Amino acid sequence: MNKFKRLLGCGLAAAMILSMTACDEGGATPAVTSGVGVGTSGVASNPAATTTTGANTTTDPDANAATDKEIKDIDTGAFTPDGNSGVVKFLGYYDITVDQKGAEQVDVFESETYGGKIEWISASSGAAYYEKLATLIAADDSPDLLTFEPLAFPYGASKNMFEPLDDYLNADDPIWADMKELIDSYVYEGKHYYFPHRMTTSFALNYNRKTIEDACLKDPYDLYMNGEWTWDAWRQMMIDFCNQSDDNIGWYATDTITTSFVNTTGYPVIDSLPSGDVVNNLQSQEITRAVEFLSELGRNGLLYPADHPYGDWVSPQVWAPISDKILFLGMEPEWTYIAATEELQNPAGVENDIFDTPSDLAFVPFPRDPEADQYYQGSGTFGYMIPKGAKNIKGAVDFIMCNRLFDTDENVMAQVRNDHIAPAKVTYTTGKYEGMQKWAITWDAQVYDMWREMCDPTKFTFIIEDLYGFGTEFQTTITTAVYNSTFGEESWTQQVGEIAPVVQGILDEYAD
């Protein structure tokens, strides 16, 4: 079995109760190769559980009025646009033109340098995302661009939903050097369909540093820096916190997020190899051990109960004001930090905005498996694919390259870090807030550097999980089993015995 999944560097851009009053010191269609192993996660009960990013959270329709923000100057030596990119129709469950994670790239694309324009077509996330895409393709009304999601490969590629990119992009081009191995792993029937422009953190453990301090716990960041951030340390911290109040909860996570914990063993549940083989790890000792660890957390009452009054989907915005009750939120860290901070500092309107102040929020990677030989982390990618039948492929390719340049230009990278920790004052130039300052998140420098470190190949070995690329039935079959094992009475071994034939039957559909 191939233990390692796409080892790559990050694309650049980028237990006891404590006192409540005092703290102590201190090529072809993939063939299927049967492996040994198990799946992980919970029930896919909400669309956002399958997303890897999120939109700008503001609810104020006037918040996106024109401002005096400057557009970054990107070195175009590696790719020179002709200034005629045109209108690119983007299908997405969020608007990248105003999103905190993509608006600057859009500004560059819409400048005279590229001469482009992004037109957003709204869609739901999850399976509905691909249902709408299929409908548009069938009606010969395809969008030109959409973000990559796990269901795209191999499922979407096998359904002929995307344009191959070999005629437009070259994986051997020096600008893709650090991503080439990953790009080549997204070959389907001999063609490249996906050129990710950067690696991303997958999911992480988000927390409120004030909650940690008030509970007299050690900061997880300090434990991580000291090499002490392990499964056992994490479990003990949640026990200590939950023992302080019956209302306290150790960890909230959705189905997809628990998979990132399992990946710390060094194994993906399903591994789609560049050779075309698919390794099915549904019965491996390592993943079984991880799921049983989660089950123990559930039995000890440390996990968020499904019937909790906070609801079954605790988004960053929901978590932000109750982060004194939920110690860890399992979620993608960049989005969570932005969205939760914005919830606290940027209510509708600008009158009550909090400026130039980092929040108390922070995050750390999932803890290290004490039995693993290295520090493994689940990881992902960020990039775009071009749907079948797109009318402006040239413009879509230009936007893909614009994003790659943005993430590899050293001057831009330095500016981006400074923009995060010391954002320039930006004022509205039109609308009812004209002349007033527009809110922007101010990142804590330590948190920002932690985020970048979580994409550092010298710190982690990255695991990309292919569980979510074989259709919703496949995903739900496995994640439901993990959920039942974690929160129910059935053991993981029992669950695996029941689902193994179904899982293998679906994988067989992708075999030669």
> Which spans have pLDDT < 50 for at least 5 consecutive residues?
1-58
What does the radius of gyration come to? Answer: 23 Å
State the strand order across the main sheet: 3-2-4-15
Number of strands: 16
Structural class call reads alpha/beta
Strand content: 5-15%
CATH topology title of the domain at 61-201 and 382-433: D-Maltodextrin-Binding Protein, domain 2
Span between termini:
19 Å
CATH superfamily of the domain at 61-201 and 382-433: Periplasmic binding protein-like II
> Which bin fits the share of residues in helices?
25-40%
Average pLDDT, all residues: 84
Largest sheet: 4 strands, mixed
CATH architecture of the domain at 61-201 and 382-433: 3-Layer(aba) Sandwich
CATH class of the domain at 61-201 and 382-433: Alpha Beta
Task: Tell me briefly what this model is.
This protein is α/β, with parallel strands linked by helices.
Structure description:
- With 512 residues, the protein is an alpha/beta fold.
- The protein has a domain at 61-201 and 382-433: Periplasmic binding protein-like II (D-Maltodextrin-Binding Protein, domain 2, 3-Layer(aba) Sandwich), CATH 3.40.190.10.
- 32% of the residues lie in helices and 13% in strands.
- The protein contains 16 helices and 16 strands.
- The chain has helices at 103-109, 127-138, 155-158, 180-185, 209-214, 220-225, 231-242, 255-262, 285-299, 316-319, 333-345, 393-408, 410-421, 445-453, 472-487, 492-508; strands at 31-34, 86-92, 116-122, 145-147, 187-188, 191-192, 198-201, 204-208, 249-252, 270-272, 277-280, 326-331, 361-364, 376-382, 384-385, 461-463.
- The strands form 5 sheets. A 4-stranded mixed sheet has the order 3-2-4-15. Strands 9-12-8-13 form a 4-stranded mixed sheet. A 3-stranded mixed sheet has the order 1-11-10, with helices on one face.
- A hairpin with a 4-residue loop joins strand 10 (270-272) and strand 11 (277-280).
- Helix 1 crosses helix 12 (393-408) and helix 15 (472-487) packs antiparallel against helix 16.
- It is globular, with a radius of gyration of 23 Å.
- It starts with 30 loop residues before the first strand and ends with a helix.
- The model is unreliable at 1-58 (pLDDT under 50).
